[in-house]
Amino acid sequence: MGIEAHRLDGIGTTIFAEMSALAVRTGSVNLGQGFPDEDGPSAMLEAAVEALRGGRNQYPPGHGTPELLDAVIAHQQRHYGLTLDRHQVVATTGATEAIAGALLGLVDPGDEVVVLEPYYDSYVAMIQMAGGVRRPVTLRAPDFRLDLDELAAAITPRTRLILLNTPHNPTGTVLTRAELEGVAAVAIEHDLIVVTDEVYEHLTFEEPHVPLATLPGMFERTLTISSAGKTFSVTGWKVGWASGPEHLVAAVEGVKNWLSYSSGAPLQPAVAVGLNEHDAFHVALAADLRAKRDVLCDGLADLGLTVHRPAGTYFVTTDVSSYGFADGRAFCAALPEKAGVVAIPSQVFYDDLDEGRHLVRWAFCKRLEVIEEGLGRLRAGLKN
Ligand SMILES: *Cc1c(COP(=O)(O)O)cnc(C)c1O
């Protein structure tokens, strides 16, 4: 029996920590957790060192250092034509704290949160800690598209907000403009807030990402979350931000003040350097990931797995039932011993187990030789 408060009931530790520890323990190739094994732009790393040596080591302003706020503002203007002021951006300790701030700051006990399923696991934890009720709308294999009728049907008088994620982890779906217009229509009709997690905004392989906040009538009801982690391959930095109308940003800040108060002083100006000077990095990173996606997808398909090729993110989903495994959890539990590879059972991202039981998520944000090594081990281990 634990001594934790009930708000933690059933939450447990994150699957990513569990599977990464398993990878280390078994000497497996880790195609589970989505962290790159290469660094971000060197000028950005140098800027962080310079800030550390230059005395930027005390509490920065709670809502973010001016350089970072201005860099986010310039980024949103340059890439998306969105005009923001400094009250419309708050820096957070990763996108994770922005998600926590949004849910704790906007959701009252009993409020319903409509969320795409499969969902990123921190959404579940934070909806529960806020006392909210999650109402999943399922993206279904093989295409994982958003069914707008199902979205509309999930809205009730208790719905407080829609929590969107595009490009979507774990499916790799990038919502189209038409789908986003459908979301916008529902949000406007029911006067709802939309919190949109766009941490993979630059990691798309076919069509560019469309921020929901750019759609007509949506800026004033949309809180957009992003982070340096995925954009610049520095997932350990934990520098994120939320942007949108001042009243939504203030809700995040109101929580953030009491969670961390402020975030990574020397890292914020370095992320500003990345945002201001490294648009070319986004293009190169997306091209690199696209090539790695193809290597991993082709390799997994050659093994006889049914592959759902993603249009963005770090991840590909496979159906392992075609391989004789009805249960992805059993498949992932056996995989380290059988093949020396770790992957993530997607069922942990579902309420509706029938939709996710047979699905497994693989990460391709790894050096090519790591992906090749993983595939080689799978070829040897799965054959027998
Ligand atoms: C990685 C990830 C996050 C967390 O971002 P941090 O900046 O590391 O906190 C949030 N949302 C999604 C969908 C992610 O994949």
Automatic annotation (TrEMBL):
Protein name: Putative succinyldiaminopimelate transaminase DapC
This protein's UniProt keywords: Aminotransferase, Pyridoxal phosphate, Transferase
Domain Aminotransferase class I/classII large as annotated: residue spans: 29-349
Recorded GO CC terms: cytoplasm
Record family assignment: Belongs to the class-I pyridoxal-phosphate-dependent aminotransferase family.
Cofactor: pyridoxal 5'-phosphate
Annotated PANTHER family: FI04487P
NCBIfam families xref list: PRK07777.1
Gene name of the encoded protein: dapC
InterPro entries recorded: Aminotransferase_I/II_large, Kynurenine-oxoglutarate_AT, PyrdxlP-dep_Trfase, PyrdxlP-dep_Trfase_major, PyrdxlP-dep_Trfase_small
Record CDD domains: AAT_like (cd00609)
Originating species: Nocardioides marmoriginsengisoli
Gene Ontology molecular function: kynurenine-oxoglutarate transaminase activity; pyridoxal phosphate binding
